[in-house]
Amino acid sequence: MTRIICIDASTEACSAALLNGDEVTERFQIAPRQHARLLLPMVDELLQQSDLKLNQLDAIACHTGPGAFTGIRIAVSVAQGLAYGANLPTISVSSLANLAQQAVLVNAEAEYWCAIDARMQEVYFAVYKANQQKLVEIKGDECVIAPEQIDFNELIDSSASQQRILTGSGWEAYQDTLNFEDNDFSQQLINQLPRAKFGLPIAEDCFTNQKIQAPELLQPCYLRNNVAVKKVVNR
Asked: Are 3 and 55 in contact (CB under 8 A)?
């Protein structure tokens, strides 16, 4: 039985979720600038509800970004503190992968075009697809990019029959500057935000395959530091 807590504060939403064997419980709230106040009580509530103690978990998972810098730092600090206190490993989960994992529930055969508003007229962007286990895998790389620079024609494989889904806050924030109406997007989940319960399948897979790390190695993924990355290349 795998037991993992996952936390997220990468956008205006704040959430924590607990995997306890086959059972998933979650606390979720849209609460800008309140992440530091909410995260630990959410974790405590989940543990109490399941009658568990922190040291009975197998790992602490955290959405390390990309997203809001302050929220990511808060989440990483909380995850490190919990992991240190209970002598547990940590697991890093991408916020963009989380959006894609949500979209798997809509269509497991699609491509997931994920965008989070990065402010400064840019988005955090990546394309994902699901494997046979319905876990998302990235195509190309995550990047920070001006939305109008996303080359839809280059990224769309004309020989592929699968559908494409837009998901994430970045599409809504810059919809006036984007031109994706003429492309074959089967659904637009433009109001989706990362939430912890959708990070749990990714975290469980990482734990099963020993993709874990010591708490001190858990680090934020800001992407904006990678100023040389300006284009997504389809693989």
From this structure: no
Extract the tokens encoding 94. Answer: 């991408």
CA distance 144 to 146: 7
- CA-CA-CA-CA torsion sign (36, 42, 45, 46): negative
SS (H, E, C) 109-163: CCEEEEEEECCCCCEEEEEEEECCCCCEEEEEEEEEECHHHCCHHHHCCCCCCCC
Q: Which fold has domain 96-189?
A: Nucleotidyltransferase; domain 5 (3.30.420)
Whether residue 235 is predicted with pLDDT greater than 50 in this model: the reply is no
CATH code at 3-94+194-217: 3.30.420.40
Domain spans of the chain? 3-94+194-217, 96-189
- β-pair partners for 138: 128
Contact yes or no for 135/201 (Cβ under 8 A): yes
- Pairwise pLDDT comparison (159 vs 16), residue with the higher score: 16
Q: What is the pLDDT of residue 176?
A: 77
Cα separation of 196 and 99, whole Å?
10
Structure tokens given for 166: 């837009």
Q: Is the pLDDT of residue 67 over 90?
A: yes
Identify residue 5 by its one-letter amino acid code: I
State the pTM of this model.
0.91
Percentage of the chain lying above the pLDDT 70 cut? 90
Give ∠ CA 41-47-53 in degrees, rounded to 5: 115
